[in-house]
């Protein structure tokens, strides 16, 4: 089961979308559900049980009850053992962790961090109140209140990175670091430093994830006969073999081996409002 909703205009300064995801225990030995990097950070609140994650570079095992994780750089697996797991999540803008924690975002890349190591006790009390609400809608309502309180103390003035992200989203990731720097009149070294601080990845890595997510959604919607020459050309891949390399890097399989039907959760996540591209639609 998966629900999602977009934030109000007021909360969109930090939030990309809200979601709730519930899964039953898996058969022993199952690899788990496949997920891919979404270009967002996540504030996760377990409502029941615990999800286990395998595939992050620096983390394998049960996720903390309440956690914050930054950018994900490759595909990973979610598993549920012993009892049903239910989680409420707040997907946040690429620069939100840097704004919230005042710490380099790269510290949270591929690393789920317990919220008690990040936020003050008062914030944790509010997180628990969100978890105690009786429905998805009520949790979103309480989360919106929480975000509104946080926003009143934050400076949301656009940074150079925000302008670069807008260009990346506008081009669906089909833009090079050199082109970004030319457009923004900044050196590559400086932009790379700012991205690692504020997003947790280099601009090249983030653009590459954005481009792949865009083509992956089109690829899966095309069914059994995707027009690979057209898709790879449209999304500025040098050739099909370059696309195959990206596909395997982010999904763990080649396009010919990949079948969306094997991944019920991923299929649900890309069906209507694809979670992989929602970050590209955030309000400016």
Automatic annotation (TrEMBL):
Mind telling me which Gene3D superfamilies this protein's record contains? Answer: Homeodomain-like
Q: Which UniProt keywords apply?
A: DNA-binding, Transcription, Transcription regulation
Residue ranges constituting the HTH araC/xylS-type domain according to the UniProt record: 158-261
Q: Name one Pfam family in it.
A: HTH_18
Q: Which InterPro entries match?
A: AraC_XylS_family_regulators, Homeodomain-like_sf, HTH_AraC
Tell me yes or no: is Hydrolase among this UniProt entry's keywords: no
Question: Which PANTHER family does this one have?
Answer: HTH-TYPE TRANSCRIPTIONAL ACTIVATOR RHAS, HTH-TYPE TRANSCRIPTIONAL ACTIVATOR RHAS-RELATED
| Protein name, UniProt field | Helix-turn-helix domain-containing protein
Annotated source species: Algoriphagus taiwanensis
Classification of source organism: Bacteria, Pseudomonadati, Bacteroidota, Cytophagia, Cytophagales
